[in-house]
Amino acid sequence: MGAYKMVWYGAVVPYVRTTQRQKWVDKRYKRYQAWKDAFRLSANTQGFPSELDPSKCYSFVLRLFVSGYRRWDCDNAGKGALDSLFEQDNGVSEIYVKAEEYTGVDRVEVELVERGPRVTSSTRRTARTKPVRSGRKAMRGVGGSLSALGADVQGDRPNDGDPESPHMGGL
Asked: Full-prediction pTM beyond 0.85?
């Protein structure tokens, strides 16, 4: 199993949510795009893969060291790093992000660890051919109506045993 590591000396620029128009006018988004390009270039020079093998699953570890106080969320920093490193990151099954403040230097450490074969829907098939159903429709197909199981079809209230009760569900 493979493991890749890289170090980026500099501050992280977290993910910026945008609309189509903002991509052309928003200064924050342009800064984010420039950071993504520089981060990807640094990853290329350090031997980090540019694509993930679709048949394998990976763990992504991101350690952020901030010289002062951070004003962003860790999840946005993780998304920004994943977006800059991989165009298709759906093979990443585990993400771990940790930020430490007041470390004296801005630094980002990234580790990508291969965890094994990816489990897809074709490898999870069972002998069951019909999908599992839940709720009222599923209960009607098992042993008759919901009323026979002690619940009201309209409101799922418990059956109090009185045939004249409005909670009997139409027995």
From this structure: no
Give residue for tokens 């000396």: 9
List CB contacts of 120: < 8 A, sequence separation 6 or more.
Answer: none
Euclidean distance between CA atoms 61 and 114, whole angstroms: 12
**Residue 114, Cβ density class (10 Å: 0-12 exposed, 13-18 middle, ≥19 buried):** middle
Topology adopted by domain 3-117 = 60s Ribosomal Protein L30; Chain: A; (3.30.1330)
For residue 127, count CB atoms less than 10 angstroms from its CB and return exposed for 0-12, middle for 13-18, buried for 19 or more: exposed
The pLDDT of residue 159 is above 60:
no
CA atoms of 79 and 85, how far apart (whole Å): 10
Domain boundaries, the chain: 3-117, 133-171
